[in-house]
Amino acid sequence: MKLKRLEIYGFKSFAQRTEISFNAGITGIVGPNGSGKSNISDAVRWVLGEQSAKALRGAKMEDVIFNGTQSRKPMPYCEVSLVFDNEDNALNTQYAEVMVTRRAYRSGEGEYYLNKRACRLKDILELFRDTGIGREGYSIIGQGRIDDILSVKGEERRQVFEEAAGIVTYRVRKEEAERRLEKTRDNLVRVGDLIDEISSRLEPLHEQSETAKKYLKLSNRLKALELNIFLVRHDKLKERMASLQALMQEQQAVIDDNENKLVEMGALRDRLQLQQEALEAQFGAARDALQEKNELLTGTRTRRERQAASIQSQENEATRMQEMVKESEERTEELLRLFEESDADLSAKDVLLKKANEDLSGQTELLEKLLHQAEEAEQRLDEHKQRVLMAVNRQSDLKSRETRQITMLAQMESRLAEVSSSAQEQALYLRQLTEALESARQQKTDADMQLKALRDEAAAIEEHLQDKTGALNEKLDALKTLMSRIQSDKSRLNLMEEMSKGYEGYYGAVRKAIAFSRNDPHVHGVVARLIRVPKVYETAIDMILGGTLQHIVTDDEETAKKLIDYLRTNRLGRTTFLPLTAVRSRTLSQDERRVLDLPGSLGIASDLIAFEEVYRGVMENILGRTIIARDLDAAIAIMRAGR
């Protein structure tokens, strides 16, 4: 095994990353005083696990981090790595090259790495045990160290020889085995005590166990019943939703049917409207034609009446002429009779003959006039007859035309009546269709409203179901989580109670002292049991106090001395006691309290935890001068301001 190189970054005076290689032969590091030669050996001791700041020539461990200069800022952390050649397998590891790294932060946190993998300090110490390499190993001998080795007691010199002989590992293992045996003996004693204690509590515990089993059984039954209720409700809701969906589908089908009917009715209404308009047009035309025929018929009737009056006048004139002709014929016959009488008595009445001839001549002239008048009357009569015949013919024609017109008028009136009846029927049908349409629209509106109500109800039911389902699932999950947490908390509480009673995790001397003074009212317990720390400050308080958490608080010095004598007499180790009568409060001065107003300052540690007033002196002694900051930058600013 051979040391190959040393890498330093941020350690003491090494602000920049520095690598020192150790080649074959002797490597010497020379330089003036204050150049940092000793810092190299300090870096080697520190990376190998040195925990004492004093051994590294510092007041506290933070002093190993580069603190800055006028031209360079302070480093937030430091890191040192040692690289060994392990070709000969001197180190108990499979790697041919071993790199050990240690890193420290200003916050107090520290990290260890073995070949760049996080590990524990214990792993590094075990790796270099029996090799002479380590914080107390003989491979690093400082100034005056040889004289110290020669002048120390035999026991301490023996440790050096054991390290060189390689038996430290076995001695450590032996001590560890003895500690484990001691711990096992203590555990056996504790187990015996627990058995005795538990034996007396077994019967009530058995009853409690039966009660708990009954509770769990009933709880499981309650869960099953609640689950069954939920499933039944869920099924009912699903059935109701299915029926509602079916009803919605039926309503939708009815709505679709009504909409189709509405479309058909609309088309039929349009057709009827067109037919009505056509019928109204025909009716108007027929009415106009009828009015025209009526006007023509009225004119014809007027002319026929005038012609009838004219014919009646002509007939009266013809009758009068016929009477005149008849009268003339009668007079002619009378004259002929007289003539015959005169001719028979011609001889006797010659005188009368002349007079008769004269009268006859006059009568002949008169007869001729009358004949001429009769001829003229006959001519006029013929003309009148002709005119009457023509009038009669014309009247016959007019009667025929009137008959035809009356027939046409009757037909048109019949057609008009039919059209009017058809129009009324169409209007009635249209009104019925309109009423049906309005009824269908109203039904559609009602169906839409009902459908909307059903949809709203279905949506509300669905939402309610989802809410109930989600709430039930959340409750079930919460119940499961709660039950799991309860079981975990019970187990953890039982474990913590057992550990708390036995002070597991505490130093052996602390456990022995607490066990010895269990019934002593003058012993208050360890610091960790006397404070209540908010979760946000747990890490900070734990880092600040460290081992102080295991210091034992007593009423006075006498009680502390009694416990110290007990530990010393029985060789049980050492621990620290804090007597209330001897420990004095340590707080910040008024001038130092100015830093509490700086940004990032959360307050004094003793003010951020809770404890009984009787312990104020102790708490202010260990925490009264410690300030907790929000982060590292704020802590650095507070530290600089407090200098």
Would you mind describing this structure in some detail?
This protein has three domains: 2-135, P-loop containing nucleotide triphosphate hydrolases (Rossmann fold); 236-471; 520-643, Taq DNA Polymerase, Chain T, domain 4 (Up-down Bundle), CATH 1.20.1060. Helix content is 65%, strand content 9%. The protein is built from twelve helices and eleven strands. The longest helix has 177 residues, at 168-344. The mean pLDDT is 74.
Report the strand count.
Answer: 11
Strand content: 5-15%
Radius of gyration: 72 Å
Mean pLDDT: 74
**Which structural class do the helices and strands define?**
alpha+beta
Largest sheet geometry? 6 strands, antiparallel
Unreliable stretches (pLDDT < 50, length at least 5) are: none
Please bin the fraction of helical residues: 55-70%
Return the domain count: 3
H/E series: EEHEEEEHHHHHHEHHEHEEHEH
Number of separate helices: 12
How far do the termini sit from each other? Answer: 47 Å
Can I get a quick summary?
The chain has 643 residues and is of the alpha+beta class. The chain has helices at residues 37-47, 121-128, 145-151, 154-165, 168-344, 350-502, 508-516, 527-530, 538-545, 557-569, 616-623, 632-641; strands spanning 2-9, 18-21, 77-85, 97-105, 110-114, 117-119, 523-526, 552-554, 577-579, 601-604, 627-629.
Key descriptive features of the protein:
alpha+beta, Taq DNA Polymerase, Chain T, domain 4, 12 helices, single chain, 3 domains, Rossmann fold, rod-shaped, 643 residues
Write the layout of secondary structure elements.
Elements: E1 2-9, E2 18-21, H1 37-47, E3 77-85, E4 97-105, E5 110-114, E6 117-119, H2 121-128, H3 145-151, H4 154-165, H5 168-344, H6 350-502, H7 508-516, E7 523-526, H8 527-530, H9 538-545, E8 552-554, H10 557-569, E9 577-579, E10 601-604, H11 616-623, E11 627-629, H12 632-641
Parallel strand pairs: 8-9
Antiparallel strand pairs: 1-2, 1-3, 3-4, 4-5, 5-6, 7-8, 10-11
Helix pairs in contact: 5-6, 7-10
